[in-house]
Amino acid sequence: MKTYRFCLGAGLLFAAGCGSGNLNNAVNPDDIDEIRLYATDNFQSENLELQQVYDTNEDIAAWAGIINSADQVDGMVDIAAPDYEIALIGEEDTDPYFLWYSEDSASLMDSADTHTLYSITEDGKETLSELMEESG
């Protein structure tokens, strides 16, 4: 019986660790000099229109918090072209993120992993709304 409980407990811990995740610590704000927000209509980084450059420590930390706390969406991803592309500019090259944004919802995708979608948390949506207001 003890073995059964141990196996069950270990299995639950393993399942919890392998379940839906987030982009936890994917972005370190200390490694970023600026964040560029581009309007786009595709996944190929073409037809980009610069909307805003965020270069204050406060804005960079806010963007990092939004990205790092986004929750993975379970299931297959078949989604329309993104509204925005987010470029993280720093000493090291990083892949951009795609952003879908509306008043009702907001989602992210790492351009290096287009099979996984992340939903921005409620707190993240509030912060994102404030940042997007800056871009006019």
Automatic annotation (TrEMBL):
Residues 53-134 form the YhfM-like domain. InterPro entries: YhfM-like_dom (IPR058780). Pfam families: YhfM. This is YhfM-like domain-containing protein.
